[in-house]
Amino acid sequence: MAQLYQTTTEITELMMHYRKLHTTAVHPPTKIPILVYPCVSLVTRREIMQQRRRSRIGALSIVVFGLTLGFLGPQMTNARPLTDCDHFTGTYLTTLTDADGNFASRSILTLSVDGTLLSSNSSQGGLKGVFNPFTTAQGTWQCTGSQAFAATVLDFTLEGSAGPDLGIGRLDYKAMVDRETQAVEGTVELRFFPLKGNPLSDKTTLSGTFSFVGQRIP
């Protein structure tokens, strides 16, 4: 049986504690029977501890929820429902040029209705002594406007003549699609990460920026 509070001072402190809890709006007011008498009280120490524990849990939940919104906020602010960009879906043949405007490669981009994106590139076989072969890139795309989308895809860098190290490549796309002509144009940034690294959160230097234009395949 829980120990009872039995002095007027302790009863007064308990009542003040309950008033404070009820004004926080964390929990709705609850009617708790208290017999104001110097020697007898129906409020037990166990009830007080349980109420404090619930208050702390409620406050912690609010803090965690706020931190989650802060983390996701920037991404959620720009993203729109995929249905707003359902006219983007399809496969595009694109041409990439480097920062100096020189031809870099051809690429095939496929945007699916579920938000996945596949990218294959004419340079996947690698260039001897320059860069190693790499796999087809896979990732996701987001609708960022009535004529715009952003995407992030990953691929694996394979062993080759340019070096024995395996790795992960990340490509970040920003593009516009003309609804009438079904033409696409935009930019893509390339970054590399160690095979055991986290390409979604680790910091690394920018390896290259490319521009691309293309047309949707009917």
Structure commentary:
This protein has 218 residues and is α+β, with helices and mostly antiparallel strands. The chain folds into 2 domains: 8-74; 83-216, Beta Barrel (Lipocalin). It has 2 helices and 8 strands, in the order H-H-E-E-E-E-E-E-E-E. An 8-stranded antiparallel β-barrel has the order 1-2-3-4-5-6-7-8. Strand 2 (103-111) and strand 3 (116-121) form a beta hairpin. The protein starts with 7 loop residues before the first helix and ends with a strand.
List keywords for this structure.
single chain, 218 residues, alpha+beta, Lipocalin, 2 domains, eight-stranded antiparallel beta barrel, 8 strands, globular, disordered N terminus
Entry summary:
Helix content is 22%, strand content 34%. With 218 residues, it is α+β, with helices and mostly antiparallel strands. The chain has 2 domains: 8-74; 83-216, Beta Barrel (Lipocalin).
Write the layout of secondary structure elements.
Blueprint lengths: L7 H15 L22 H34 L11 E8 L5 E9 L4 E6 L15 E9 L2 E10 L9 E11 L5 E12 L13 E9 L2
Antiparallel strand pairs: 1-2, 1-8, 2-3, 3-4, 4-5, 5-6, 6-7, 7-8
- First CA to last CA: what distance? 78 Å
Which residues form runs of ≥5 with pLDDT under 50?
Answer: 1-9, 21-44, 55-77
CATH architecture label of the largest domain? Beta Barrel
Residues in β-strands, percent = 25-35%
What's the number of domains? 2
Largest sheet geometry: 8 strands, antiparallel, barrel
Succession of helices and strands: HHEEEEEEEE
